[in-house]
UniProtKB/TrEMBL annotation:
Keywords: Oxidoreductase
UniProt protein name: DNA protection during starvation protein
Encoding gene (name): dps_2
NCBIfam families: PRK09448.1
Entry keyword annotation includes Cytoplasm: no
Enzyme class, spelled out: oxidoreductase
InterPro entries listed in its UniProt record: DPS_DNA-bd, DPS_DNA-bd_CS, Ferritin-like, Ferritin-like_SF, Ferritin_DPS_dom
Organism name: Urbifossiella limnaea
PROSITE patterns, per database record: DPS_1 (PS00818)
Domain Ferritin/DPS: 21-161
CDD domains attached to this UniProt entry: DPS (cd01043)
Length: 162
């Protein structure tokens, strides 16, 4: 069943909006999942760098909250429904599950870095998809998200380098 569209005066064709809403909701699922995995890391990280990582993961969670909100609101602005429940995210996320027995500081950082890199890659792909569908605003949203995800990845990878 195609996603529901509410009446709107938005000038993009309905079929394009449906595809964009599906693309946005895929990212809502991934962002929601990554947020929960980052918060899990925040709660459970152990080791001599605990406090620095605990605080970093909390900051990353805040950024993901903002990205998720912006992405979900764009889906509704296009006349769609934001599919943002935890159950929907669990069912639809394309990210790998966080390794359940990973607690040591740098192992947690490594696990998160993999997931941030995966989402950054799919976000860059979404920029092109939104452009192809004629929606520069959604492409711009994904461009801004890409910058934030790349910045977060840099923060994480900086712990693993050197």
């Amino acid at each position: 069943m195609p996603p529901r569209l509410f009446p709107t005066r938005h000038d993009l064709p309905a079929d394009n909006r449906r595809d964009l809403i599906a693309l946005l909701n895929a990212h809502v699922a991934d962002l929601t999942d990554l947020r929960s995995q980052t918060k899990h890391a925040h709660w459970n990280v152990k080791g001599p760098t605990f406090i620095a990582l605990h605080k970093l993961f909390d900051e990353l969670t805040d950024t993901l909250d903002e990205l998720t909100d912006t992405t979900a609101e764009r889906a509704t602005a296009l006349g769609g429904v934001a599919d943002g429940t935890i159950r929907a995210a669990a069912a639809q996320s394309r990210l790998p599950e966080f390794p359940s027995q990973t607690f040591a500081g740098l192992s947690v950082v490594e696990a998160l870095a993999v997931r941030y890199a995966d989402l950054a890659k799919s976000t860059r792909e979404a920029i092109d998809a939104a452009d192809t569908l004629g929606d520069a605003a959604t492409a711009d949203l994904f461009t801004a998200a890409s910058r934030e995800l790349d910045k977060a990845l840099w923060f994480l990878e900086s712990h693993l380098q050197g």
